[in-house]
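User: I'm curious what two different proteins look like when written out as structure tokens. Can you demonstrate?

Assistant: Sure. I'll show them one after the other, since each token string lines up with its own sequence. Here's the first protein:
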Amino acid sequence: MSRRRGLSVRAKFTLSYAGFLLVAGILIISVVWLFLLRERSSLYLPPLEDFLLILSPRNFGPRVFSPAAIALLLLLLVIGLVGGWILAGRMLAPLTRITTAARRASRGSLAHRVEMEGHQDEFRELADTFDTMLAQLESQVAEQQRFAANASHELRTPLAVMQTMLDVALQDPSSDGREERLRAVNARAIALTEALLLLSRADQRSFTPEEVDLSFAAEEAAEILLPLAEKLHVSLELAGGPAVTRGSRTLLPQMVTNLVQNAIVHNLAENGTVQIMTTAGTEAVVLSIENTGELLSAEGVSTLTEPFQRGTERIHSDQAGLGLGLAIVQRIVRAHDGTLNLSARDAGGLRVTVKLPAP
């Protein structure tokens, strides 16, 4: 939700506290003025009989009282602002920790906990509830990931056996072509299983970060996919310089390969192009891939990262993918604390921008 930026809660607390002190000071000074300085009679302070204090408009008139009252109000205002800022900071410190934990959870880090110490109050009750929610979410996500990984492992063995049996059957001269079709279906099932396994591994972040150059990964992906690009009459264009980030040496090249393959397959029937650009900054490295193609709607682009989502015009194509390419890319980018942005090109096609932290 887009909101206009306003005053922070800490600033509001500070101003409220300072305003309260200022109003209290004005009331106190008003009481002093009405009931003491307006008194015409002399006031004796017992038990000091030899000491006489005379309060009268002549001795304590507006010329003397007003500057002192203004100075007192300014002092109360300063005390209110400084004291209010410090007190508000101490009171809102638990809320800051909860906000930090929520941001980390939104980036996929469900293992982090607030673990608020101290006596029970509203903030600590909120922190404990938030920790409980994170624990339940982490347990459910881990259970889903284990299911996907276990299902993928269980499927790989029988599929591999089927593939071997089909290879043997293809060597039979009496084959009528059915084995070839079965082999293609089996190969697709194996590819789907591997994709699901990669999808679950990307979410687990079970890798040792190493330096990876995205420009080198892009060159390798272009070299591997060049035969496919030539078959589909798509030209590949690479530009930019080194773009080094830290992450998995397996997942990041897979991410680049998926993006380049997606750009090649989802392109024009003739004279299509794919432009690959890598840039490096002080805080982030950027991989940008653009491809020509059909006009895409903003609503359609927003769903492309969902699993098993494909463009309707390519579902029946012999080059149709598994529908997991961009979903895997999104999981890999999220596992590396990066951002993935997809946008439709005005002339048709798709623009994909991946931004990852610089090492």
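Here's a second, unrelated protein for contrast:
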Amino acid sequence: MTATAPGKLALLWRGDRETRRHATADNNRWHAIFAALSALGIHAEPAVYDDDVIDEVREQLLKVDGVLVWVDPISDGKNRFRLDAMLRDVASRGVWVSTHPDVTLKMGVKEILYTTRHLGWGTDTHLYRTIDVFHDEFPRRLQSARPRVIKQNRGNGGQGVWKVELTAPGAARVLEARRGSESFDVALDEFMTGCAGYFADRGCIIDQPFQERLPDGMIRCYMGTDKVVGFGHQLIKALIPPPPEGAASPAAQPGPRIMHPATAPAFQALRSRMETEWTPRMMQLLDIDRADLPIIWDADFLYGPRDAAGQDTYVLCEINVSSVFPIPEQAPAEIARLARDRLLRVRDVSGGESE
């Protein structure tokens, strides 16, 4: 490439060997991002990943200047352990990786809800690092008669996220956030014992109060490094049980995520707090430089109790950095611009240019 060209980039997502063989810039859900990158002179190529082609993908990534990664932490029984080790190795050889696995472990895990609980987006949040501590402390927190929500540290799609409420001493009604789940009654001790797997591989459990305004929906705040690039508002069904049979009110229904630009008037208070307060304080607390922030990430907020003036408050539900999609229509151009700037910086630091 010429001296002024930003460089070569790979977009990595999970698929099988056949998908890898036939992948192009146009036949996937990221086609708008490929087009935006191309418009800025960035050569971008698909890098479809699975564990059985890890050596092939590693060889591919070592020939580019950077890689944007879209892979969920848990999917169809697969995890990211081998992928993350490979990405660390590739990054150590000078390839820019977004999001770097070490940054994902700071931002893209539920533990951040505990670590940052005092930043202004938090609530009454607790952390359990062992099953024994969970057994000892969690039942006491349920005595308030308010439901609690527990979350495994790494997961997606509602896996390992449970609403728990006492129905009698030692008994609970639980509902997982995974699509299609139904609530059931269980002995509290039995349920907690069943959560033992969440502590594997240095895992933990996060515990927060159930947010009563959950039926008002969730706001997804999309970030391009440290600036808001759009919002998504969605009515959700997860953790909202259906009404009793014959009840007058209909069951909660999930709705499509309605996308909004960063300038949407309804979300300007949230935008201001994200850009000027919460994100800078999170970066300082977690020791993350702006250059290491993900190119695209999102923070999911639920509505908290209204304040004394009747204004909305917001409670952080989770941060996603592993596989942020769908995205607002404004996001591909911003992703491309940020990627170009990072690639040029990588080239300047290395003192060379792409071939």
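A detail about the second structure: The first strand starts at residue 8 and ends at 14.
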